[in-house]
Amino acid sequence: MTDQDTSLFQMTLLHRAAAVEALLTDLLSDQPQDGEISRPPRLMAAMRHGVLNGGKRLRPFLVMESAALFGAGTPAALRVAAALECIHSYSLVHDDLPAMDNDDMRRGQPTVHRKFDEAAAILAGDSLLTYAFELIAAEATELDPGAKVALVTALARAAGIGGMTGGQALDLEAEKVKPDEAGIIRLQAMKTGALIRFACEAGAMIGNANPEDRERLAEYGSAIGLAFQLADDLLDVTADAAHMGKATGKDAAAGKATLVSLHGIDWTKRQLSGLVAQAEELLAPFGEKAALLKQAARFIAERQS
């Protein structure tokens, strides 16, 4: 990736993040919406703390760029992207709880249960989860009803039993009984990869892509989803907490099996390079239109936080 390519990617990532941030700020105001009786201020404050905290908004970026690949860089794509960020943020709020990963810091700030309390964190997560589906289904999301149903179904599957929450359950089990390599890959494909795969496939769905192209984007999402988790595990071993904005070294302390712990740092770096090449090959038929998505794959593999 040239310096010019990196600059364009970083600028676009920031632009997409700012658009999502602005929409979420508006959506999570204290003002009740049509059909709502009220919005408890403390609950809303906890929700905002869990979402509006400076994340990269990578998953929303993937939704919007994948949609743009098919000529659908629309407000609807932005709303679906915001919905996905609500799901992702809820998962972090709940993962940080004492009963789960028991983290005190997230993105350099106190986690929601530390800033407020455990009950507020649970309710904030619950509210973000349910609000995500409302955002997609709402009249303001200008998509055909069939597209909305397909997106809601796909997101529910990615976030649910066979996806993210199922992966978190496997992750907790892995602290007691170490999985083998196949088990680790399955766990990571569910816990981390499922929402990233959805992000890329959702863009194709919004853009009414043909089945072959939709599957191509989904497979691209699977490749970069695995790369994201590998990079995360690598950073847990090599980065410091101040740079990451959260605790590091927790996998080793918990005795948790990861691909990094099984195969080492050099093997992991080779795997990351291979996954980037796989992602770029999947996007090759789209030519220069997919340049930013190709750069996203490299950014994910080489990220430092």
From TrEMBL:
<dbReference type="InterPro" id="IPR008949">
    <property type="entry name" value="Isoprenoid_synthase_dom_sf"/>
</dbReference>
<keyword id="KW-0479">Metal-binding</keyword>
<keyword id="KW-0808">Transferase</keyword>
<dbReference type="InterPro" id="IPR053378">
    <property type="entry name" value="Prenyl_diphosphate_synthase"/>
</dbReference>
<dbReference type="GO" id="GO:0046872">
    <property type="term" value="F:metal ion binding"/>
</dbReference>
<protein>
    <recommendedName>
        <fullName>Probable farnesyl diphosphate synthase</fullName>
    </recommendedName>
</protein>
<dbReference type="InterPro" id="IPR033749">
    <property type="entry name" value="Polyprenyl_synt_CS"/>
</dbReference>
<comment type="similarity">
    <text>Belongs to the FPP/GGPP synthase family.</text>
</comment>
<dbReference type="GO" id="GO:0005737">
    <property type="term" value="C:cytoplasm"/>
</dbReference>
<keyword id="KW-0414">Isoprene biosynthesis</keyword>
<dbReference type="GO" id="GO:0004659">
    <property type="term" value="F:prenyltransferase activity"/>
</dbReference>
<keyword id="KW-0460">Magnesium</keyword>
<dbReference type="InterPro" id="IPR000092">
    <property type="entry name" value="Polyprenyl_synt"/>
</dbReference>
<dbReference type="GO" id="GO:0016114">
    <property type="term" value="P:terpenoid biosynthetic process"/>
</dbReference>
<dbReference type="Pfam" id="PF00348">
    <property type="entry name" value="polyprenyl_synt"/>
</dbReference>
